[in-house]
């Protein structure tokens, strides 16, 4: 049975991974990021968006399209495996892991067509024209793995889009490639809902720091792609453009490796080559946080060993807070975690298994994954369209408010989605 919608509005949803609002505001930033600033003046925008816990890409993007927190939609983190000894851990790529209806599900029920480019947790989704974000984690450079995405894309779509992308290989950054693919889908298939995930800023912010020259140059690239997409849809008055992000970023200088402390307490075994072997404890690192799981019922001795290992980590100064099950429930976060470690300022957690528990970072200069109330972890939101007030300040909003707002903008019925929050007032 098909629902009737109140109006045939279309929506373009652009996610800039890791972008906090302070980066594109201010006199110098306005010159560097003219399209973001122009959109903010033309529409309604949030001073800040409070994300979910942990503040990482996959659970946050699931919240964007369901209106629900991780505990309800089922995507608790980026990794689908709790085994830190696994050499190539799969991510939460597949939409079947979602335990709630999504924006694209409602669009399909209503006879509306959708398209997506590299949207997280969208492999196998009910999206009409879909090139999902997915890769082979065993490859040395997963970001250059186009074959896995092609296999999971809508049949026949990837070769079609690849024709326009192949000349760009080696010359364009990831966001330019995704922007070009999005423009092709928009012009060729005229979807009612288009979702695009830009990743280059996040990559550079991790490697060089959130306000590094490299990260800001990547954000300039995203800003240009946003401008190109805005221009392509500018003559369609029925289309709303929304630019948003999943989380912010903070700088780091020190790397903490909790697995070394847990192994020293015998919570993991070590093989002859020094590699870890799984026992009762599972773990997922998320930069600013580190989740621990009992895979089997722990003994009293297991619990004492875990407590000693956590005490040792806290003594290094790397842990700001131990987030227990009660607080995880209040945060509507992972119901299966025994606890999560919250990184102290300047620290991030890795899955390193050897060496000292804490050392100077040799890889990352920026991270996220902390509590959503931490300064710098704020996400952003801008909406521009015919029924949206220009220059409206929405204040501080919740990431959970975005999906019901998007559904209303598209004229989709509210009885299929199950969001916890009411839509934002954009007029």
Strand content: 15-25%
Cα distance spanning the termini: 32 Å
Our count of helices gives 14
CATH classification class of the largest domain? Alpha Beta
Question: What is the correct CATH architecture of the largest domain?
Answer: 3-Layer(aba) Sandwich
Largest sheet: 8 strands, mixed
Shape: globular
Assembly type: single chain
The strand line-up of the biggest sheet is: 5-4-6-1-7-18-2-19
CATH superfamily of the largest domain: Alkaline Phosphatase, subunit A
Radius of gyration: 21 Å
Task: Report on this structure.
With 427 residues, the chain is of the alpha/beta class. The chain folds into two domains: 10-249 and 374-410, Alkaline Phosphatase, subunit A (3-Layer(aba) Sandwich); 251-367, Gyrase A, domain 2 (2-Layer Sandwich), CATH 3.30.1360. The chain has 14 helices and 20 strands. The chain has helices spanning 27-32, 34-42, 57-66, 70-73, 103-109, 147-152, 157-165, 174-189, 200-208, 213-232, 258-264, 300-315, 325-330, 402-410; strands at residues 10-16, 44-45, 48-50, 114-117, 129-131, 193-198, 239-244, 250-256, 269-270, 276-277, 281-285, 289-294, 319-323, 339-343, 346-349, 358-360, 366-367, 381-384, 392-393, 396-398. The strands form five sheets. The chain has an eight-stranded mixed sheet with strand order 5-4-6-1-7-18-2-19, with helices on both faces. β9 and β10 form a beta hairpin. It is globular, with a radius of gyration of 21 Å.
